[in-house]
Amino acid sequence: MAESRSETLRVAWHGGDRFEIQIRGHSVRVDEPKDFGGSDTGPTATELFVGSLAACVADCAERYLHRCQLPAGVTVTARYDLGLQPARLSKVALDVEAPGLPEGLRESFTAVIRHCPVHNTLFRAPEVTFHVLTSGHEAVCHHP
To answer: How many separate domains does the chain show?
Structure first.
């Protein structure tokens, strides 16, 4: 990818804690577990975030293996901790299994997977802006 590009996705509410994410014609449901008041019809947004990181690492790993003409078959397992004050992911640990990777390539392989776009974003946070649109009435929310 030689230049940056802009993409758009849309999230719509589907009742309760259920949302649908529309991405390039694909649909992904997001929901909260039942013990958090949801219906558990899909992963949480946080689970998708961690899954996105793990999938991005896996994709970069497979591309590396393909370029080096090594056997495919990477598996990434993610474990994560949720922190409070503020609510956030406080720790993510990724185990990357690459059975066909020769020991001599471990360092270059690790360098490649550490630079996947999602991981890079965690270290160079994007500018995030919020534009609140209403149907003619200004919504006012007072936060303590």
So the answer is: 2
Rounded-to-integer distance, Cα 50 and Cα 60, Å: 16
| pLDDT bracket for residue 138 (50, 70, 90) | low
Has residue 1 got a pLDDT over 60? no
Q: pLDDT for 41-57, tens place per residue?
A: 999 999 999 999 999 99
- Residue 22 in any domain: the answer is yes
Q: Give the C-alpha separation, 81 to 78, whole Å.
A: 10
Total-model pTM: 0.87
d(CA 113, CA 57): 5
Give CA–CA dist 110/80, Å, rounded: 20
**Are 88 and 103 part of one and the same domain?**
yes
In order of 2, 99, 114, the CA distances from 70 in angstroms are 25, 10, 19
CA distances from 73 to 93, 96, 115 (A): 20, 11, 20
Check whether residue 86 and residue 98 sit in a common domain: yes
Q: Please indicate, yes or no, if residue 1 is contained in any of the structural domains.
A: no
Quote the domain boundaries for residue 104.
44-125
Please give the Cα distance from 76 to 143 (Å, whole number): 39
